[in-house]
Design goal:
70% helix, single chain, mainly alpha, globular
Length: 354
């Protein structure tokens, strides 16, 4: 609390929304209803007589509890003592993630709940047990619009379990055909609800790779053709890609690299070096862990989809100057990465003993 409560422009809107709930039980049907889970959280604390500094303390305490469950999650994944120690250590020292707990923003609550939901999925031995994760993941979807990725990942987890336990090949084929409803419903929700208040395609004209950062822009040698203003968000996206393919893929390609690499042109050399030394190896060993049988396929699908969906969203929208979009799911990378590292060390030990 040395620097007090940290706020942004969005913080003031969350606070106003929370006070309208706490004081009048009024839910305004505006842009911030898509972040309803966070004002609800704030409203509950305000009803309990909690001040803003205490909100930050509560967020920090929740992150601490989530970190304990994260430790247990990695231990369940790896089956040894090294991986949870390593993953939790990296998580705690990762400043780009930990700084959000001091802000009146959605990120802290979002990440804490998602980490807890991840634990409930990993520890489940059956679909019935995994249902405990569903309310948590549904609330995650209320905290931030892109929280729908948690629900989609859980649906994929359930479908994978159903596929693996299907009694016949015909049943598996039928299941595979029926799951086309998942991406269809996702597209409808994204197009007709989540993106309605966002100007995604409209920002493409600026050539910004990192939102509001003018030091890295993509330029087009040809006039940029914008889609009709009255088209739906995903229709606009399709038309823009069709009419400005080279420009779009150059811009999105840079976002893709910045999301995964996490380095930024305005970070210090030390900052970028630490990211490269600590994060990038986690990707390699995380991929190794995802390819190994000891971790159940449904869990691997759930974890991988969380990160891949966020990567796709960032690629087609915009990267953030703080890298906060990766930070919302980086714990998954740490969990699988530390698991892969611990398994590799065990392998080296066995080879040395042999």
């Amino acid at each position: 609390m040395k620097y007090g409560v940290r706020t942004t422009d969005d913080s003031r809107e969350y606070l106003a929304y929370a006070h309208s709930i706490a004081d009048d039980f009024y839910f305004a049907n505006n842009y911030y209803i898509k972040y309803l889970g966070y004002p609800l959280f704030l409203a509950l604390l305000f009803k309990l007589g909690v001040g803003l500094k205490s909100v930050i303390i509560v967020q920090t305490l929740l992150s601490g509890v989530a970190t304990v469950f994260f430790y247990r999650t990695t231990k369940l994944l790896a089956g040894n003592a090294l991986a949870p120690v390593l993953s939790t250590f990296v998580l705690i020292i990762w400043y780009d993630l930990q700084l959000f707990h001091a802000f009146l923003m959605t990120e802290s609550l979002y990440v804490s709940l998602l980490m807890y939901g991840f634990y409930l999925v990993v520890k489940s031995n059956s679909v019935r047990q995994s249902l405990w994760a569903l309310p948590v993941l549904l609330y995650v979807a209320l905290v931030r619009p892109n929280g729908f990725i948690a629900v989609v990942a859980y649906m994929a987890y359930i479908v994978t379990v159903a596929y693996l336990t299907a009694p016949t090949v015909r049943a598996k084929r039928t299941l595979l055909l029926s799951i086309t409803i998942i991406p269809t419903l996702t597209i409808l929700v994204v197009d007709q609800y989540l993106l309605q208040s966002f100007t995604v395609v409209e920002t493409y004209e600026k050539g910004e790779v990192i939102y509001l950062y003018k030091g890295l822009l993509v330029h087009s040698a040809q006039p940029i053709i914008m889609p009709p203003a009255d088209a739906s968000p995903l229709t606009k996206l399709y038309l823009f890609v069709r009419d400005n393919s080279s420009y779009f893929f150059r811009m999105s390609g840079l976002r893709f690299l910045l999301f995964w690499g996490n380095v930024k042109p305005f970070f210090s050399v030390f900052h970028n070096t630490m990211i490269a030394l600590l994060l990038w190896p986690m990707y390699i060993f995380g991929a190794i862990a995802l390819s190994k049988y000891p971790i159940s396929l449904p869990v691997r699908v759930f974890g991988a989809l969380l990160v891949l969906q966020q990567a796709f969203i960032t690629t087609i929208t915009s990267e953030n100057e703080t890298g906060r979009f990766l930070m919302s799911v980086v714990f998954v990378v740490f969990a699988f990465g530390a698991t892969g590292i611990s398994w590799q060390i065990d392998k080296w030990k066995k080879q040395g003993e042999g």
